[in-house]
Design brief:
single chain; BirA Bifunctional Protein, domain 2; Rossmann fold; 2 domains; 31% helix; binds adenosine-5'-triphosphate; binds magnesium ion
Length: 438
């Protein structure tokens, strides 16, 4: 893609309500455009990042055997009345009437709908376990939509639902999802901590929030930094290994302010390992047994033929929130650097449009074609603008690698730079191998 052709409305006009870095940056670099409070259009640059995140989430869900499907955004109120949540959900639910006067709603989540699909489809324990997921827009009429894509009214979420015969079986599904989340956030280049969350009346520890560290987060975090030193490669998809993974993570201190006690922190964590910061919730996994299957009659025949309510869990990831969260975690000293796996482009060729502009452009086009052949997603900055402005702009767009065709590049030697590092002079072959996909 040539930057001169890309629809990327870069602007210096950031509205005053954009208080945090990610919100400001996403508007400055034309990733999103607000359409009304807490509702955004995703412009090409932002959409590319979100799609990359979505794809990684999808691959990691598929890896544990979860099956992708798609449920609608608009739901009937009937099933919500059956579960008792139609009234309980309150003002966050956007309620709509169709032309026949039927009560509909824009789904804030999908426990009811998936239970309805399940109960009319599967009848026997022999079909279990099942994990189904979709990646779909949700609507919650948040009281205070803010922080750009972090707390929106319309947002993109992956939500998965597991179905098992017993608590013990359900725990296995839960552990698989735990594993999937750890792998997902790792691949996204984010440090996420699983925090045991309150489960209310159900009890147990079968609820975790996954929180990434960022000063602008809404939750206060206290953790032992050893949680980031766990070697993730040691775990595999076996029951034993997944149990060990859960044990390893829960043996290291990490809590939010609700459970924090200064004396526990001092007792459990060496001073030099103590992390005190804020965090952003990017995922939540939850086991709730028959909370929905009971009122909705999600019954299956168990071994003896007796009908029992299926045991369910639900598992969310905030796909659109993650775009903002990744910026919060990676934007420092006026330089945004996307993790390689979710960067909108793999590399940008920055071409000096000064006195040798024709020659530079020709060189740039040649390199562009060569890199494209290697399946590398290249942006070519052919905009007629001085180099210092170009560099400032690319510090914000955040593509981690730059090929610079200016005064330094000469003959075979091309200036190559990784953001936040000094540039080096390399030939095209070395540049290709640096950019090679893992
Ligand atoms: P929060 O406490 O932040 O409101 P939640 O507990 O309501 O989150 P869940 O219902 O567990 O969230 O939803 C799963 C995920 O969806 C969350 O972990 C978060 O990443 C994302 N999410 C929830 N609400 C929003 C929102 N208003 N805007 C963007 N993403 C959201
Ligand atoms: Mg919420």
């Amino acid at each position: 893609m040539y930057l001169s052709k890309l629809f990327i409305p870069i602007t210096k006009d950031v509205p005053s309500e954009a208080k945090i870095k990610s919100h400001q940056l996403m508007i400055r670099t034309g990733m999103i455009k607000q359409s009304s409070a807490g509702i955004y259009s995703w412009l090409p640059l932002g959409f590319k990042v979100m799609k990359k995140i979505e794809q990684i989430v999808r691959e990691e869900q598929n890896l544990i055997g979860a099956q992708e499907m798609l449920m609608p955004t608009i739901q009937s109120s009937e099933i919500w009345k059956e579960s008792g949540r139609y009234d309980d959900y309150g003002e966050e639910m956007l309620r709509i009437k169709d032309r026949q006067g039927r009560e509909m709603l824009y789904g804030p989540t999908n426990e009811e709908l998936i239970t309805d699909i399940f109960r009319s489809s599967l009848k026997s324990y022999k079909s279990l376990p099942q994990i189904l997921y979709h990646i779909q827009w949700k609507f919650r009429d948040e009281m205070r939509p803010r922080f750009g894509v972090m707390r929106c009214r319309e947002f993109f979420m992956k939500d998965a639902y597991s179905f098992d015969l017993s608590d013990a079986e359900a725990k296995k599904s839960y552990n698989k999802m735990f594993y999937s989340y750890i792998r997902t956030f790792n691949r996204l280049g984010l440090k996420a901590i699983p925090m045991a969350a309150d489960t209310g009346p159900i009890g147990g520890d079968l609820s975790h929030e996954f929180i990434i560290l960022a000063e602008t987060g809404e939750s206060q975090i206290f953790a032992d930094k050893q949680i980031f030193e766990i070697d993730l490669n040691q775990y595999e998809l076996t029951e034993q290994s997944l149990n060990k993974m859960r044990r390893d993570f829960s043996s290291i201190y990490a809590v939010t302010d609700e459970k924090f006690k200064e004396e526990d922190f001092a007792k459990n964590v060496k001073k030099e390992n103590q992390i005190r910061t804020k965090g952003i919730e990017v995922g939540h996994i939850f086991y709730f047994g028959d909370k929905y299957s009971k009122p909705l009659n999600g019954l299956i025949d168990s071994h003896g033929g007796k009908k029992v309510a299926v045991k369910m869990g639900s598992y969310g990831i905030g796909v659109s929130r993650l775009v903002g969260a990744a910026i919060e975690a990676n934007y420092k000293n006026d330089v945004m650097k996307w993790p390689k796996s979710i960067s909108p482009f793999d590399v940008v060729i920055i071409t000096s449009m000064g006195k040798n502009s024709n020659e530079n452009l020709k060189k740039a086009e040649k390199i562009y074609k060569e890199l494209k052949k290697q399946n590398i997603d290249v942006l070519l900055d052919d905009v007629d603008e001085n180099m210092s402005n170009k560099f400032k702009k690319h510090d914000l767009i955040g593509i981690p690698y730059q090929v610079i065709l200016g005064s330094k590049s000469d003959g075979d030697k091309i200036e190559f730079k990784e953001l936040n590092f000094e540039s080096e002079m390399l030939n095209l072959e070395s540049i290709k191998s640096k950019l090679k996909k893992d």
